[in-house]
Amino acid sequence: DLFGSVEPLLPSLREDGVAVWVLGAGPYPEGAVALQELLDAASEELRPEEVWEPEDMNDTCLYIFTSGTTGLPKAARVSHLKAIMCLSFYELVGASSKDVVYLALPLYHMAGSLLGIVGCLGIGATCVLKEKFSASQFWEDCRAEGVTVFQYIGEL
Fold first, then answer.
1. Where are the alpha helices (DSSP H) in 53-97?
2. What are phi and psi of 78, to 5 degrees?
3. How far is 127 from 103, CA to CA, in rounded Å?
4. What is the pLDDT along the chain (156 residues), one digit of tens a residue?
């Protein structure tokens, strides 16, 4: 429950043009946007392509933040093309919707969020999320969850 921590900051966030969206049980702090209410009020009608289709696949789709190993964290631009390429990451290595993917990478990192989660969505695979990698638990976790594919980076 972080509302108490965020509430004093809401006026300055609004002044800076930052919206605070919340999801979950209310009540919400004044000025916070209740995401569930927006979802409930949203139309089921498809939006016209010109609203959501990028003019150029190299346009910015989203930003991820670097870890700041050489200084402060910086926003890194991810294009629409790169985001779509992540959808087919597991397909490139032969995985399919029948696979169970073990993911213990941080979701704030591109390898965890875009390659891991978006990659699983791309093939319709089951994703087993582990809060933190544990070498001593790894094989036990894999057996217990029926894992057939795992993703790692050298630092694990």
1. 80-87, 89-92
2. -120, 125
3. 7
4. 566 777 788 888 888 888 888 877 777 777 788 888 888 888 787 766 666 677 788 888 888 887 777 888 888 889 989 988 888 888 888 999 999 999 998 888 888 888 899 999 999 999 999 888 899 999 999 999 999 999 887 765
Q: What's the one-letter identity of residue 10?
A: L
* Cα–Cα distance list, 7 to 21, 22, 57, 61, 125 (Å): 12, 12, 38, 29, 38
User: What range does the domain containing 22 cover?
Assistant: 3-41
| Whether residue 34 is found in the same domain as residue 75 | no
Q: 156 lies in a domain?
A: no
Element (H, E) at 62: strand 60-65
- Say if residue 27 is preceded by a cis peptide, omega within 30 of 0: yes
Based on the fold, state whether residues 95 and 142 are members of the same structural domain: yes
Tokens of 85: 């390429």
